[in-house]
Amino acid sequence: MPVAPFIYCVRSRSGGSVNSVSGLSIEAQRRIEELREVLRQGVRRRAPRADVALREEEAGGATRMAIELQNADSSDENCVLDGVSEALAEHIVANLGPDLMHRVLRRNYSYFDPDEREQILEYARSEAPHPGIVRSLARRFADYLEQNSALNLEGFLTFRLKDYVADLERSVDAAVDEFMLDREYREFVRLLRYFVDVQVPKTPSVHVLLAESGRFEICDEGMHALPGEFAADFRYASEDGEVNLDDLLVSSLITAAPAEIVIHAREAALELASVRTVRQVFGERLRTCTGCSACEPVRDFRV
After folding, report:
1. Residue 301: inside a domain, yes or no?
2. Nearest 5 degrees, angle CA 123-CA 125-CA 128?
3. 15 and 152 in one domain?
4. Quick one: CA torsion of 281, 283, 286, 291, rounded to 10 degrees?
5. The pTM is what?
6. Domain check: are 213 and 69 in the same one?
7. Sign of the alpha-carbon dihedral angle for 16, 21, 24, 27
8. In this structure, are strands 8-12 and 51-59 parallel, antiparallel, or unpaired?
9. 10: how many CB neighbours lie within 10 A of its CB?
C-alpha cells in the first residue's frame, strides 16, 4: 500500500517571487503557525498520495505560502485545490473569525474589563454562524482560486467575505445584549436572595403544584390552596404575555415567606426557568418531588 508523502515546509528569505507547480500561493499576516498546520492537514486529507510541499517566504511583513506539487496530474491538482479551500475556510472559522470578534469587542465595547470580554466572547462563539459555514466558505475560496493563483487571506476576509464579517459583528452585539441581561438577572437574584435571607418565615412550608406549561397552584401543608392574596387561581393564566408566570411564582413565594418550599412536578417541569430562579433565591429551603400522590395529578392545568 502506498505511503502518503510527507508534506514539508521550506522557508526562504530571498525576497524573490515564489513559483509553484500548481501556481497557488496564500499570503497572510496573522496566525501563521495555525495556517501552516491547517493547510498541511487539508491537503493531506484531500490528496493523501500527492507529492506536496509548502514553501514559505517573507513578503513585506506578511508570509507567503506556495503549494508545490511534483509529478502531479489534473486530478491531484483538483484535490489539492479542494484541500486548500477547505483548510482556509476552517482557518477562518477557527482562528481569524474569533480574532475579529475580539477586535470588534475591544473597539466597540472597550468599557468591559478583560474578564467580562472573555465571558462575552463565549456568548458570541455560541451565537456565531455554524451550520454549513465551513462548506460555504470553502466553496467561495475554491471559486476564487480557480480563477486566481494568489490570495491575500486578510484581504479576502475583509473585502470578499463582508457578509460573514457582518454576521460575526452581529454575533458580538447579540452576545453583549445577552451578557447584560444575564448580569441583570444575577443582580436581581442576588437582591431577592438577600431579601429572603433577612425575612422572617410566615409559614412552615408551602407546596407548589407546577405543570410543564408553567402554570401553578400554591397550597399549604394540608394541600389546600392558600387563602387571601393567593386565592387567585393561576392554573388558567393566559398565554398572551400579560402574565409572566415565572415572575408571578417567585413573587408569590416571597410574599408567602415559607420556611420550606416543596415543588411537585414532572421531571420536565423541573427544568423550567421559574424553578431555576426559585432554587437560586431560596436555596436550601427548596425541595422537589416527582413521585408522591400530589405529583401524580399534576398535568397541564388546562386539561
Report:
1. no
2. 110
3. yes
4. 110
5. 0.73
6. no
7. negative
8. parallel
9. 11
281, 138: one domain: no
Tally of domains in the chain: 2
| pLDDT tens per residue, range 124-139 | 988 776 768 999 999 9
Is a pLDDT exceeding 80 seen at residue 113? yes
* Residue-wise pLDDT tens digits, 15-30: 443 333 357 899 999 9
244 within domain boundaries: yes
Average pLDDT, the chain: 83
pLDDT of residue 300: 53
Looking at the fold, whether 180 and 215 belong to one and the same domain comes out as no
Residue in the structure block whose three cell numbers are 400522590 = 293
Do 141 and 46 sit in the same domain of this protein?
yes
Q: What pLDDT sits at residue 2?
A: 36
Q: Which three cell numbers stand for residue 203?
A: 409559614
- What is the mean pLDDT of the segment spanning 151-160? 95
Instruction: Give the C-alpha separation, 2 to 130, whole Å.
Output: 36
Q: Residue 36 sits in which domain range?
A: 8-186
Asked whether the beta carbons of 23 and 149 are under 8 A apart, the reply is: yes
C-alpha cell read off for 154 = 486578510
Query: What does the block give as the cell for 72?
Result: 502531479
Q: What is d(CA 221, CA 197) in angstroms, rounded to the nearest whole number?
A: 22
Tell me the C-alpha to C-alpha distance, in Å, between residue 174 and each of 29, 119, 141, 158, 170: 29, 13, 28, 21, 6
Same domain assignment for residues 97 and 59: yes
What per-residue confidence (pLDDT) applies to 73?
A: 64
Contact between 31 and 91 under an 8 Å Cβ cutoff? The reply is yes
